[in-house]
Design a protein that fits this description.
Strand content: 25-35%
Shape: globular
Strand order of the largest sheet: 2-1-3
Distance between the termini: 25 Å
Order of helices and strands: EEHHEH
Largest sheet: 3 strands, antiparallel
């Protein structure tokens, strides 16, 4: 089991999506590669990098929330491809 948090990032360094995987980061990445919306060229670019941090399943929600909060603080909004955010 490889649980953790991950970010899809454009070549420019812009974070496009922040997510978590409680079972397998590899499987979650495959889902993103197969999702046309996540692979399409958008206003911020196309996902180019996949950064991740392995954590125990009980810790991934807190790490994801921290990454999302950081993105909101730096950019004034959540990443472009994130549609839902639960701050608690």
């Amino acid at each position: 089991m490889k649980s953790g948090c991950y970010a899809l990032v454009a070549y420019s360094g812009e974070v496009l999506y922040v997510g978590l995987a409680t079972d397998s980061i590899r499987d979650r990445m495959q889902v993103h590669l197969e999702t046309p919306e996540k692979r399409a060229l958008g206003t911020k670019g196309v996902p180019f990098w996949f950064y991740y941090l392995l954590r125990k399943p009980a810790e991934v929600t807190a790490v994801e929330r921290g990454w999302m909060n950081q993105s909101i603080l730096e950019n004034g909004d959540m990443p472009l491809l994130n549609k839902v955010y639960s701050p608690s």
